[in-house]
Every structure is written in C-alpha cells, then in structure tokens.
Amino acid sequence: MHKKYRGSNRAIASLALCALATQPAALAAPPQPAIRQVQIVDEAMCCAGCARKVSGQLYATRGVREVGVDMKSRTLTVSLPEPTPAMLGQLWHAVEKGNGTPTKLVTAEATYTLVRPESNTADQIASTDRPLVIAIDNLHCQGCASKIAGQLYAIKGVTKVSVDRERGLLFVESSRAPQLSPWTFIEAVAKANERPLAVSGSHGELSIEWVTAAAPKSHQQAQQPRTGGFQR
C-alpha cells in the first residue's frame, strides 16, 4: 500500500510537469513594442536650464521612455514606441510648452522642417484669413482627395475643403482663430492613408521630406474633376 501511494505521487508530479511544458505561451511575457528614436532640433535651447524645462515637458508626454540632449547641436533625442503622427505632434508641442522653438523633427521615415513667417504682425493677421494649404504626395484621383477631405471635416472648426488636383493641393478654411496646429492636418491626412508634403498657413510652412518614394497607385483618373470643393 505504501509503495502504491508513492507511485501515485510520482504520477501526479509528472503530469503537472507535462502540463507546464505544454503551455509556454501562457507563461511567457508579452512582447514589448520596439523602441524608436525621434530627434527634435530646438533653436531656443541655449543652456542647461532650457534643456531641463523642455525635457521635463517631453517626459510628461505619454509613451516617452528617455530624452537625450545634445547642447552643441541643440538637438533632443526622444526614445518611445512606434511614433504615430499624433504622437509626433504631441512631442513638438511639448517642446513649445517648455518655451522651446522646434524647427525640425526627424524620424526613420521622414524629416519635418518648419519655416516660420517673418515677424510682421500685419501680415500674420492677414494670413489667418487665408485658407490653410496642404500639399499631398501623388494626389492621384478625386477618390483620394475625397478620403482626405472626409478626415479634414472631422476636425472641429473646419468649415470648407477645396481641391486643386492638378497641383496636388487641398485648401482648408476654418472658423478657429488662431489657425489649428499643422500637426492636426498631418494626422488627418495619415488617417486617409495618404502622405502630406507640406502644410502652409499662419504658422509658416511645415514641409515633409519622405525617405522612400510614394507607392504607385492604380485608380482610374479619367473624366474626374481636378478642382472644386467638397461638401460635408
């Protein structure tokens, strides 16, 4: 009887080990997202105090893991998981919130460069009455323009979207003053699975240089209007 009892214990232990061996996925830690780096040039970062203020705002941005500072080149290197267009806009505005003056943002996919308008108050006030202009990479057809317009109309304050497909441009009118952030429109274009080349308005011109060429498209273009507006 004693030997049978010990044998039963061994059988139970063996079954338990087999069960553990057949469930590695359940016990394994979930895969961690890859960490990417984004570089931001801040023209106003001239001292350690400036760097601390800007870094503090970046660390307060959700998802940021680490912030490196190179005072010589006035560049911040931000480590975080996959940076979406919305996240890039948050990083840019975090630098501004820290009293920084971002002029360039670099990712593995693209370089974003802002050229601000000259400090002429009269011209800046007049520019707020003009439509914001978005240049699109390979605005292939009216269907593409309509998809982008749909995302733009989802932005609070946008009142009218017009297209000039010949030049690959969309014109956006807004009731918001001052004008909305250019990053809001970059995000909208990305949601339509398209690529912006520049966003111009009262902020100046935020241009985007992509590392790779745009993928070819095969939509039909015949007999499609090249200019006009989109209704809500």
What would you say this structure looks like, in words?
GO terms for molecular function: metal ion binding. It comes from Botrimarina hoheduenensis. Residues 36-100, 130-197 form the HMA domain. This is Heavy-metal-associated domain protein. There is one protein chain. The protein has 232 residues and is α+β, with helices and mostly antiparallel strands. The chain folds into 2 domains: 36-108, Alpha-Beta Plaits (2-Layer Sandwich); 121-230, Alpha-Beta Plaits. The protein has 7 helices and 11 strands. It has an 11-stranded antiparallel sheet with strand order 2-3-1-4-5-10-9-6-8-7-11, covered by helices on one side. Strand 4 and strand 5 form a beta hairpin. Helix 3 (48-59) runs antiparallel to helix 4 (85-97) and helix 4 runs antiparallel to helix 7.
Give the topology, please.
Blueprint: H1 2-21, H2 24-27, E1 36-42, H3 48-59, E2 66-70, E3 75-80, H4 85-97, E4 102-106, E5 110-115, H5 121-127, E6 132-136, H6 142-153, E7 158-164, E8 169-174, H7 182-191, E9 196-201, E10 204-210, E11 227-230
Antiparallel strand pairs: 1-3, 1-4, 2-3, 4-5, 5-10, 6-8, 6-9, 7-8, 7-11, 9-10
Helix pairs in contact: 3-4, 4-7
What would you say about this model in short?
Residues 1-28 form the signal peptide. This protein has 232 residues and is an alpha+beta fold. It folds into two domains: 36-108, Alpha-Beta Plaits (2-Layer Sandwich); 121-230, Alpha-Beta Plaits.
